[in-house]
Amino acid sequence: MTYIRLDKLRAIYKPQLPEVLEHPTKLDVSTNAATPDERIAALFPHTAQLPVVSLAEAGAEAEATSPLTVGVLLSGGQAPGGHNVIAGIFDALKMHHPASILYGFIMGPGGLLRGEARELTADVINCYRNTGGFDMIGSDRTKLETKEQFEQVLLHAHRLALDALVVIGGDDSNTNAALLAEYCRSVNDPLCVVGCPKTIDGDLKNGWVETSFGFDTCVKVYAELVGNIQRDCYSSKKYWHFVKLMGRSASHLTLECALMTQPTVAIISEEVAARGLTLGDLVRQLADVIVDRSRRGMDFGVVLIPEGLIEFVPKVRRLIASLNRVLAENGHKLHLVKESQIINYIASKLSDEDEETLRSLPEEVARQLALERDPHGNVQVSRIETESLIVTLLGQELEKRRSQGEFEGNPSPLTHFFGYEGRCSMPSNFDASYCYALGRTAVALAKEGCSGYMATVGNLVHPPKEWIPRGIPLTEMLTIEERNGVDKPVIAKALVDIEGAPFRYFRDHRKEWAEGIAFRYPGPIQYFGPSAVCDATTITLRLEHALEPEEDIETIW
Ligand code: FBP
């Protein structure tokens, strides 16, 4: 019996390619860009009117080429497949011209500002093909937005003789890319800036971006873990598991995980906001399910909680907006306030209602909401222990019901947080191929000087051969939002659409999941085997494209 390590075998996996990327490409200017919001047009006078472009086979027209020098950086949180985007860029550059050079900026946009770059040669790239993580060059969350920063970027770009820079990142990082592209054009600098849509959160999607890379793999890892917990739960029948899942604001990861595993309950933040539910309402609804199951002899279950839930409870959401304003106006004075008095100081600047909400939260949660933001102004929801908060409030509610003679059960709660476990997993076949195609598309755009574009690949529910690479002007995705109390151009985070097909499917089935045992156990990601298992993407994407969530087994064998 021979033995080969999966990671070794995986290193030689050949990502599947869209047909058009099998050959040299030329641009096909297909659609005129929609007229952007006039505030965006005013802020982006040089890049707001670009057309959407797709790629076509260059055929005999393929011209003799000269080498290209490209820089790449990874920005924000890790997402499976980032290394394959870089491998796609590298291979496309070398096919374009063997003397082309790829530099990787070390530790994200911060490294770009410091000019810390290393050449990525075949030896480096080959070590990272089809691997998870961002460790090839690292990442950070530095925000690029000032003229001084852009000048610094151009200084390093000129030193390295870069023709193009590829920014692999989420909504905030691609906003940075749009700002940088606009700046370059405004000073007549030829540096071409291209973005790629990354984030496990799945919230960088719109009419042009069907899904961000990393979501597919990450959610499959979480679904495996949740499935394992469900099987354990159903075996011992003695625990209630409360599982917080990463995903920042949007609940896409929780919703998809629920579709894959059919837990007892899944909370979707966007619905909480739409229905104006309070934490008390949520806790009472959960208590109803627990009491009902207990009466029927089922003192066990699994509850999925999205990481960003707290931000969507309307009172807390209003509080966060007020805190952002208070911090924007008074942040510079905070160092003068004694550490133990900071929350009191901030509370004194809030309205009575907001102060009451702040003080109703456990002190640790209040501090997180009041003080901790990432460089883009986002509340750092992964650090808030929402699952423990819910278990505490639920315990109080169940004790109340017990004292009123309404509940006799004895639920034993366990909490979990699945976040970082999924972000660096070995990419699924879908993400491995999707990311590689994104990298190849980024170079196809860069060699044509398409600056201010996002490389996208569409038609993703079909086999990779039929995928459609395109370049979408980043300004098409921009809108104005208040961040840290100031209006800024941003790519809006796409939240779960509670009128959309994935949520509707969940809504139509959740009663049955809550009342009985509908658990599914998806098992680990499969890299080899039948394509219907190994290459399939998420139920969310299938439902969004009006496909059944799964095929009948007879249709496959
Ligand atoms: P991005 O938005 O940068 O892709 O990051 C995703 C994410 O994993 C969120 O789900 C999570 O809230 C956050 O990063 C955690 O950030 P950090 O890595 O800084 O702890």
TrEMBL record:
GO terms for cellular component: cytosol. Its EC number is 2.7.1.90. Non-allosteric. It is found in: Cytoplasm. One of its GO terms (biological process) is fructose 6-phosphate metabolic process. The record marks D172 as: Important for catalytic activity and substrate specificity. It comes from the Bacteria. Its main location: cytoplasm. The record marks K198 as: Important for catalytic activity. Diphosphate binds at G77. Pfam families: PFK (PF00365). Its cofactor is Mg(2+). It is an enzyme of class 2 (transferase). Keywords: Cytoplasm, Glycolysis, Kinase, Magnesium, Metal-binding, Transferase. Residues 70-327 form the Phosphofructokinase domain. Transmembrane segments: none annotated. Pathway: Carbohydrate degradation; glycolysis; D-glyceraldehyde 3-phosphate and glycerone phosphate from D-glucose: step 3/4. Homodimer. HAMAP family: Phosphofructokinase_II_Long (MF_01980). Belongs to the phosphofructokinase type A (PFKA) family. PPi-dependent PFK group II subfamily. Clade 'Long' sub-subfamily. This is Pyrophosphate--fructose 6-phosphate 1-phosphotransferase. It comes from Porphyromonas endodontalis (strain ATCC 35406 / DSM 24491 / JCM 8526 / CCUG 16442 / BCRC 14492 / NCTC 13058 / HG 370).
